[in-house]
Amino acid sequence: MCFAWPAFGQGTIITTPNDGSQGAIVTTPNDGTQGTIIISPVDGSETVLPDVKEDEVRAASGTGAELRGLDKTSGTVTPFSIAVGETAAVGRLEVTLGECRYPEDNPTGEGYAWLTILDPNRENVLFDGWMVASSPALNALDHARYDVWVIRCTTA
Q: Does residue 16 lie in a domain region?
């Protein structure tokens, strides 16, 4: 026979209704302070979180992109340029550039391109999305033999 008894020294759990005095998110009153006040459910302390501001970086559209392709089997890296709307071959794959954007104040940095990569032999799309030049692994082509990544957008 087995009995379940509370263990000695075990604490008591007390529940209290949420009356809004603790653990609440309260918007800041009109006292000139910007942000949101969060009240801790543990000790009632208040923390002010600043308002999130809109990102002021504006993107411009490029006329094309510089890309690189890697054949993992042979170790050959092939740089190539492609215009918006055009298709280029990387080994057995077809790469189509839909759009390339870059920050207006920094044309050589942080470019990102919309690429569609397909294998014409298997008639399936392997990649369809944005690739970021500064972080190629963020959204990468997943292929056993080939890698493709964006270097930068071109404007001429």
A: no
For residues 43-54, average pLDDT: 73
Supply the pTM of this predicted model. 0.63
CA–CA dist 88, 149 (Å, integer) = 13
Residue-number span of the structural domain to which 65 is assigned: 59-154
Helices within the chain (DSSP H only)? none
SS3 assignment, position 18:
coil
pLDDT at 9: 47
Same structural domain for residues 66 and 114? yes
For position 55, what pLDDT does the model report? Answer: 65
Residue with tokens 């006292």: 31
Nearest Cα neighbor of 130 from 87, 88, 156, 101 is 101
Ramachandran class of 121: left when φ > 0, alpha when ψ lies in -120 to 50, beta otherwise:
alpha
